[in-house]
Every structure is written in C-alpha cells, then in structure tokens.
C-alpha cells in the first residue's frame, strides 16, 4: 500500500455481537461498535481516526495536552472528537449514541487542550446510547450530520429524531 493518506472506513461491527445466534438483542456492550469521528472546525470536514480510541490519532500525536484552554499558545486549531456508537434494532443498524468533546491543537507549539475526564465520560455516554451534540457550533453540527448521512443513509434514517433535531438536520 502506498504511504501517505489512508482512507479509514467506519468501524461498525468487527465481530458478530450475536456470536452466531440469530436472536434480537443478544450480545454485550463492546467498544467494537464505537468509532471516533473528528470534525475539523476550520476545514469543515469530518473523518474517522481509530487511533483516538487510545489517544493516538493523527490530531493528537506529538501534542502535550494541557488542562486549561488559556494555557495553549495562540493559533490552536479547534476540533470536535465525536464518539459514534452504532446499535441494531428490529429495523437494522442505526447511530445510537453520538457525543461530542471539545479539543484544540497547536501543532507548531505541540500543545493542545482537552479534558480527559470529559472524553472518557462522553465515550461512556455514547456507549450508553445518549446524544450530546447540542453544544457544538452550527457549522460543525452540519458537517457531522452530512458525514453521518453520507457514510450510510440507512443508518441515518433509522437514527433517533433527537439526533437529527440536535444536529439541525430535521
């Protein structure tokens, strides 16, 4: 494979959560059903970076994160890290949990801001099928909504009205 940009696909379901059984709702809560989606606020684009599961995404690499936004040198680029959990109901798979966390990164200064407790709590809330995106800026909400729709329109269509409303995509 050629070095450079790799196209990462959504990590929907790595293993069969029903483990061979065909009943509805069988399986356990698993990190295999969650994907980290970054929204680059300035560029107006969204992308998946599985490295974020272990704080090793391209955005986070070689950056020391500080607990106070004010301590990050000027010129920090804003991002949203969005935890997207996919579940399945009788109708099929859908975006079940979608929670956003704020992050800023100044690559030149190798400093950034993120609240690790917030990131862990939002991951947990996404796994618990909660929607927490109403604090995002309007442009980023639109970028995320378009990304989720374009990734898989069926997943989007089966998702909750709350997700669509909170992302301003009703």
Mean pLDDT: 85
Largest sheet: 7 strands, mixed
Give the total of beta strands.
Answer: 7
What is the CA-based Rg, rounded? 16 Å
Quick take:
The protein is α/β, with parallel strands linked by helices.
Commentary on this structure:
- The protein is α/β, with parallel strands linked by helices and 170 residues long.
- Helix content is 22%, strand content 28%.
- Strands 1, 2, 3, 4, 5, 6 and 7 form a 7-stranded mixed beta sheet that branches.
- The longest helix has 14 residues, at 138-151.
- Mean pLDDT is 85; it is low at 5-29.
How would you describe this structure in keywords?
4 helices, 170 residues, seven-stranded mixed sheet, alpha/beta
What is the topology?
Blueprint: E1 34-40, E2 45-48, E3 64-66, E4 77-89, E5 92-106, E6 111-113, H1 116-127, E7 131-132, H2 138-151, H3 153-158, H4 161-166
Parallel strand pairs: 3-6, 5-7
Antiparallel strand pairs: 1-2, 1-4, 4-5, 5-6
């Amino acid at each position: 494979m050629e070095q450079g940009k790799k196209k990462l696909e959504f990590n929907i379901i790595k293993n069969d959560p029903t483990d061979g059984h065909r009943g509805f709702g069988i399986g356990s809560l698993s990190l295999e059903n969650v994907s980290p989606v970054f929204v680059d606020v300035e560029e107006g684009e969204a992308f998946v970076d599985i490295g974020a599961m272990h704080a090793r995404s391209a955005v986070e690499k070689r950056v020391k994160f500080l607990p106070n936004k004010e301590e990050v040198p000027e010129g920090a680029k804003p991002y949203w890290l969005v935890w997207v959990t996919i579940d399945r109901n009788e109708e099929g798979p859908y975006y079940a949990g979608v929670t956003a966390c704020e992050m800023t990164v100044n690559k030149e200064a190798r400093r950034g801001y993120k609240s690790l407790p917030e990131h862990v709590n939002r991951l947990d809330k996404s796994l618990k099928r909660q929607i927490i995106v109403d604090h995002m800026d309007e442009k980023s909400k639109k970028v995320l909504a378009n990304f989720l729709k374009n990734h898989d329109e069926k997943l989007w269509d089966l998702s909750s009205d709350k997700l669509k409303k909170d992302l301003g995509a009703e």
